[in-house]
From TrEMBL:
Residues 7-124, 137-255 form the VOC domain. CDD domains: SgaA_N_like (cd07247). SUPFAM superfamilies: Glyoxalase/Bleomycin resistance protein/Dihydroxybiphenyl dioxygenase. It comes from Microvirga tunisiensis. It comes from the Bacteria. InterPro entries: Anthracycline_SecMetBiosynth, Glyas_Bleomycin-R_OHBP_Dase, Glyas_Fos-R_dOase_dom, VOC_core. This is VOC family protein. Pfam families: Glyoxalase (PF00903). Transmembrane segments: none annotated.
Amino acid sequence: MANQHGDFIWYELLTNDAGAAARFYGAVVGWQTRAAEGSDRGYQILGIGGEDVGGLMTLPADAERAGMRPTWLGYVGVDDVDATAAEIVRAGGTQHMPPTDIPGVGRFAMLADPQEVVFYVMRGATDGTSTAFDQGKTGHCNWNELATTDPAAALAFYSAHFGWAKGDAMPMGEMGDYQFIDHGGRTIGAVMKRTPEGPPPAWNFYFGVEDIDGAAKAVSANGGAIHYGPAEVPGGVFIIVAGDPQGALFGLVGPRRS
């Protein structure tokens, strides 16, 4: 695996209507969908311009019965899945799925941080480099944002296990700082305090689009809901936070063309 320990390497949507979700994101982000080779769970690959960005699968029935709802999850690349999973549990995290092999793909585990935010860790089976996170490309994830009950504790946790570091910060008044996360010589996202009236603590992933206004119209026209934006952010680009027709939250980021 050519990516560094601590890189985001994959994004996955768990949903209760895989077909409808594939059509929605195809219209909004431009992803093409294909079946994953050898998958017995109907796993689908999301790609754009010949590069794979993420996956899509039906939310397992047992997870749905346990209260899990449609959601986006991120995969963090690690050098040793078993060791990292054990360290995270010792540090107060939770293991939802033990280290498991996917033949020809890699080894992964589903975990949660001490604030109960779910994520995956993974070691790929090959030395290929993931471009799922690429801030220079539309259709790829451009930003990883964690909204949590305890930003300082969360950043300390992820820094200890993945080598992330504090970057700059933007004051947000009573909400505290919007704390940027640096890793591998670049800023990969941020940690912020969850708003009391907002969704439960979670990662939100912002995917790049060519035109934020066009993407916002596509969200609404295809059964999604815009919860915030378009709003300008540093760098002269705009963001929206939205929900897909099945209720999974996601973000979009891009320029305003009109």
